[in-house]
DivIVA domain-containing protein (Facklamia languida CCUG 37842), 220 residues
Amino acid sequence: MERISEVSVNLLGYNRKQVNQLVEHKDQVIKQLEQKQTLLMQQIESLEEKVSYYQSIESALKDGLLDARQTGNEIIKQSEEEAEKRLNRANEQVVQFKESFIHYSRELAQNGNALKEKLQTMQSQVLTLLEETQSFVQETDFEACFPAKPLERLMEQLDIYEEEELRDLPQSNFNSSHQLSNEEKIELQRLIHEVIQNEAQQRRAREDKLVDFKKAKGFS
């Protein structure tokens, strides 16, 4: 729309048409300005709402940040206290473990030394026992302990006794399955005892030359 800035004047006054056009133009300008003002007001209100929204967000963020900072400080403090407690407990457990380890290690070492000494003593005793046994076996005359002649004489006497008993039996009652009676067994034991007593003196004379193994070991 063309801008009307001047109005012509004649004898009858202002040009009505031009005046009307000027008024209409001014009205349109005012209307446009009002529309712009309304639009600006709406934009201002929208901006104010946004500013208020952002301010509320900022306030919430500040409050949240403050709460988070306080909460974080509390968490850090609690964490530090808990960490210190756990560290103290861990140190106490380490000290107890070290003390227990040292105690049981010393006890184990002492038991090990005691066991070693016992084993060494047993080893010495076994070696001594073997040496004494070997010496006993080497020095003992088993032929003298069990001489052949007395045993042969015993067997001869038993044979003679058996032959005499067989001769005294009636021929009608003799058979190969005859068994000794109780009296015969007693008599046989008496003869054996006599033979053993005959060799007792010779055996006692030889005992001084033998090793008394039990006495040497201290056994009763």
Summary: The chain has six helices and two strands.
